[in-house]
Amino acid sequence: MNRFVFLLAAALCLIPARSHAADTRKDFLKLIDHPRVPLAPQTEASPATNDLVYERFSFASDSRDRVPGILIKLADLHGRRPVVIVMHGTGGRKEDEIPLLQRLAEMGFVAVAIDGRYHGERAHEGKASYQNAIVRAWQGSGEHPFFYDTVWDIMRLVDYLDTRKDVDPKRIGLTGISKGGIETYLTAAVDRRIAAAAPFIGVQSFEWALQNNGWQGRIGTIQNAFDTIAKDEGVAHPDSAFVQKFYDRVVPKIYSEFDGPQMLPLIAPRPLLVINSDLDPHCPLPGVEECIAATQPAYHADKADDHLGVIIQKNSRHQVRPESEQAMIDWFVKWLKP
After folding, report:
1. Mode of pairing for the β-strands spanning 42-45 and 196-200
2. Are 182 and 283 in contact (CB under 8 A)?
3. Which residues face 196 on adjacent strands?
4. I need a surface site. Which of 116, 157, 247, 252 has the fewest CB within 10 A?
5. CA atoms within 13 A on the CB side of 281
């Protein structure tokens, strides 16, 4: 009888957590929502090279924007196969991920990369496109180019992949580096179609960084935009309070409801491999540890402790070590079974 009472109490304690999870997903999806339009996909395949097929594609993300991508797979691949989506970091482009896509394709995955907002083929103002878009967001453009809009694009990519006959929609994995790592865990948190996730050097607590004056590394990735905004506001020496104000306009709730410690638990019980570094100024380790501490109970409650993996790269800054990349590939092989 005592055991029954204990289990009942434990179950009741989970009810508020499950309700909070549903509310957070709903709030985030409402924030990033765009007018839905037909995908209108376009594809262009190249002849097979070294037993691999390379395909360029694009689809409509919303009423005014198309997303270009690259897909690589084995030439003799048959049936529906698992997918791994790879997201680049700040200043990157989908072509940067081709070596990794090739490795994944050789393992039997359909490997995919797209350009994030204002990156690659979507950088219509050149290298300044991303920074300029962030300034416009501060000024009230209504966009969220800093992470959020690309999450929407990834979800639309999943919509597109779901239409393909070579894709198993129940075996879609997502990984990304830095900015792409943040987009990875945000997307996996709100879109259950992501069956497994492995964010690289992106998991962090924005709140911890604000409270402990550790925000400089992440802000440094968009320094030009931030400096322009600070100058326009007459702020000569930005502090945590100004960074918080910046976040409130450009990435609302990134340090509260949509922060790492709140979003990562929403991925449970799906497989999640967190890869960070111990000396990374972009993702300070204490903030990473807060994320892990908040996430472990969710996996434990779902009896899925083995579905949560953590790698902290030793003596490393903002970088991806080869052994960590291999660990990510092994993670997707284990859970998506190519």
Report:
1. unpaired
2. no
3. 173
4. 252
5. 7
Quick one: tokens of 281?
Answer: 């100024």
DSSP string, 234-252: T-SS--HHHHHHHHHHHST
Q: Which residues contact 208 (CB under 8 A, 6 or more apart)?
A: 214, 284, 286, 287, 290
CA distance 106 to 295: 32
Specify the 3-state DSSP secondary structure of 266. helix
Statement: residue 7 has pLDDT above 60: no
Residues 226-269 pLDDT 10s: 999 999 999 999 999 999 999 999 999 999 999 999 999 999 99
3-state secondary structure of 67: strand
- Rounded Cα distance between 333 and 92, Å, is 26
Report the first-to-last Cα separation within the chain, whole angstroms.
Answer: 46
Q: Assess whether the previous peptide bond of 269 is cis (omega < 30° from 0).
A: yes
Q: Of 222, 218, 233, 226, which is closest to residue 288 (Cα–Cα)?
A: 218
Supply the pTM of this predicted model: 0.93
Q: What is the pLDDT of residue 111?
A: 98
